[in-house]
Amino acid sequence: MYTGELEILKQAILNEHEGYHFYRLAAEKAVDDEVKNVFESMAEEEKRHEEWLRKAYGHMLENKPPIVEPFSVEQADSPGIFSEKRMMHQGLEVSALHIGVMMERLSVEYYKEASEKTRVGTLSNLYSELARWEQEHLEKLEKAYDFAREEWWGKQNFSPA
Predict the structure, then answer these.
(1) How far apart (Å, rounded) are the C-alpha atoms in residues 103 and 120?
(2) Pick from 89, 105, 120, 125: CA 20 to 30 A from residue 70's CA?
């Protein structure tokens, strides 16, 4: 009954699972404590997203309508913008930020498309909320990446022009 929906959920679960492991690895490799904390926070959010998606998947696997716990982006703990004076921009951290930006961008697109494709209202709402949440991650990571990139270029005596 829910075959198409299960496929969407399986890919969403995998996306969140990969995001969790990427951010955990990035946190382990980060030199700066603030950068480490942000990556750890992002990992925990990805883990929560995966848990919500797995619950919905479990219900649908049993041909039951998915039950999605209410949540909102505004209520969620989100990582803060990196402090400009505390960040140490090592090449690895700049690279990790860039990969994070690309992952979040793909997640936003995936959840927007999933929200439009699904025929289950509760899943459409879940995907829309996750798209907004991932958009918030994306905006924060983009700002941090832009700053880190400029700092790194400066340390390398590069000019983007």
Answers:
(1) 26
(2) 105
pLDDT in tens, 111-132: 999 999 999 999 999 999 999 9
Q: What is the pLDDT of residue 106?
A: 96
Tokens of 14: 């995998």
130 contacts 111 by C-beta, under 8 angstroms: yes
Q: Quick check: 61 and 54 in contact, CB under 8 A?
A: no
Please count the structural domains in the chain: 1
- Cα→Cα distances 122→62, 75, 83, 116, 129, Å: 16, 19, 38, 12, 11
Q: Please tell me the predicted confidence (pLDDT) of residue 99.
A: 93
Q: Which regions in the chain score pLDDT beneath 50?
A: 74-89
Total residues belonging to the chain: 161
- For 36, the domain range is 3-74+90-155
Does the pTM exceed 0.85? no
